[in-house]
Specification:
The chain is α/β, with parallel strands linked by helices. The chain is 46% helix and 8% strand. α2 crosses α14, α4 packs across α5 and α4 packs across α6. The chain starts with a strand and ends in a 12-residue tail after the last helix.
Length: 308
């Protein structure tokens, strides 16, 4: 099988670097090699697709052409927004081959590159398609008793014509992955509601209001943490938590790869746990310390702190 192409995108190389760090660490621990697309460029995850469809397609197609030239037939795009734009570009190439050909003549002149056969996947699809034992056999620190609210947001499952999701209103893929770590995925009402990301610059109050609803629903479900797979959702729920929930106890917001890495016993440094606005350590240290004391009576911190 050809190597799994990896498209980190702008967020994972900047504001969401902890997502990139933890994903690479988990992939290495799972013996799942990733090959970054050579010279990838921004996918254009913005309002561009609503203003100039051709330009938006070309932005996403550029990296897809490079992936095909590198011999890749699958591309992992962990950012939900990048995933949406790249997957939509593949759909466009299938529906409108003339547009794809025109873009190819501009972006890959003199080459015959077909991106319509590429498969773009998100982190949920990547992990769920691994044999169960690949993850379960590597769990060294089961997170039994930790309750997690799995948050999908908009673009991991919508639109279904692009994502292929069959249960848009009540997805369960993330819950199954969380349960493999030993943690308990709670039932709650806001798993696939929008966090208001599109209004982050134009109307912050919309974002704060929507984020507070999500946060409050997670609290009411009894969750200890929120788990997600979207940098924009993470930014809104983690960075802005002090604004929309200043009157409530904070709640850590983790990327799914961080939670899985924690259960696998990977060091904190390799998961970017120290890069959140809402501190992760107090909740997880207290929880894991309780697990250690209950199971073995030891007093040492359960989260590994080494660099290996």
């Amino acid at each position: 099988m050809n190597p799994l192409g990896y498209y980190p995108g702008c967020s994972l190389t900047g504001s969401a670097s902890e997502y990139d760090i933890s994903l690479r660490a988990v992939a290495k621990a799972l013996d799942e090699p990733l090959r970054e697309i050579p010279q990838w460029v921004c996918c254009g995850a913005s309002c561009a697709h609503a203003i100039n469809h051709s330009a938006a397609f070309s932005l996403a197609a550029d990296s897809l052409f490079k992936a095909r030239r590198a011999g890749m037939d699958r591309v992992l795009a962990p950012c939900a927004m990048c995933y949406s734009r790249l997957a939509a570009a593949v759909q466009t190439a299938r529906r409108k081959p003339s547009m794809a050909h025109q873009a190819m003549e501009t972006l890959a002149p003199g080459q015959d590159v077909d991106i319509s056969s590429l498969r773009v996947i998100n982190v949920l699809t990547w992990l769920k398609n691994l044999p169960v034992k690949v993850i379960s056999q590597r769990i060294k620190q089961p997170l039994q008793g930790l309750k997690a609210a799995c948050y999908y947001g908009c673009l991991l499952v919508r639109p279904p014509a692009v994502t292929g999701a069959t249960n848009v209103e009540a997805p369960r893929t993330m819950e199954k992955l969380v349960n493999q770590t030993g943690a308990q995925a709670v039932r709650w009402s806001m798993a696939s509601e929008c966090c208001g990301a599109g209004f982050s610059l134009s109307s912050k109050q919309v974002v704060l209001r929507q984020s507070r609803k999500i946060f409050s629903a997670a609290r009411e479900s009894g969750a200890d943490i929120i788990v997600l797979a979207c940098p924009m959702c993470h930014s809104n729920l983690d960075m802005r938590q002090e604004e929309f929930a200043a009157d409530a106890p904070s709640m850590p917001v983790l990327y799914l790869t961080q939670l899985i890495g924690l259960a696998m016993g990977l060091p904190e440094q390799s998961l970017g746990m120290d890069r959140h606005f809402v501190p992760v350590e107090p909740t997880l240290h207290a929880f894991l310390q309780g697990v250690v004391n209950k199971n073995s009576g030891q007093a040492e911190p359960a989260i590994p702190t080494g660099s290996g």
